[in-house]
Amino acid sequence: MHSYFWLISILFLIGFKGFSQDEQQIRQVFTAYKEAVTNKDGITAYSLINQKTTSFYQRVWDDCKKADSITVSKYPFEEKLWVLTSRHLIPEDLANQLTVKEVFCFLLRKNWIHKEDLSMLEIGEMEIDGAFAIAQMQYNGADIPYFFQFEKEGNGHWKVNLIEMLEAAGRNVEAIIAAGNLSENKFIIESIEKISGKKTNKKIWLPYKS
Prior knowledge:
Blueprint: H1 2-38, H2 42-47, H3 51-66, H4 69-73, H5 77-89, H6 92-95, H7 100-109, E1 121-129, E2 132-139, E3 142-152, E4 158-160, H8 162-178, H9 184-196
Antiparallel strand pairs: 1-2, 2-3, 3-4
Helix pairs in contact: 3-5, 3-7, 5-9
């Protein structure tokens, strides 16, 4: 009886310790990511995002170079937004010199990635389910309707999972567009012009010239 009790106690403590280590690592990753974004340190921020997110940015960057207007018009909202935004913000002569990591750094410096201010945010309660975690965001200690997601990759390191948040934001915006008077393309163009402070032109619908 006593041996069984101690076995259960040991297994419980091991599980609790593992969970605590995961939570601690997630909080450390968020703090490092927040500091990198706040300081416009794109290289560090890029190193803290997961493979799914970097693959998304790579696909978008490839699309900027090859996708024509008909192809781009059929993309999901978030992918279309990023292609058109990248073409609008990154000059053609510069585009051919940049890797996807450098594009991420460029867009971070231009305040397109994380337009919201992360410096005042913290993470509160979180749910960890295997290799995935979602954390409640807080402002001044109070919960806000915003969440951060994380993924533990094969090397055991937790990374920020932006792709899920990008897709969720895209679905929310699509719902807003559907309830309004603007078409999706018009909404995207007006958003890009408002945030960048300059007018777009038809070139954003065309691939970069190699």
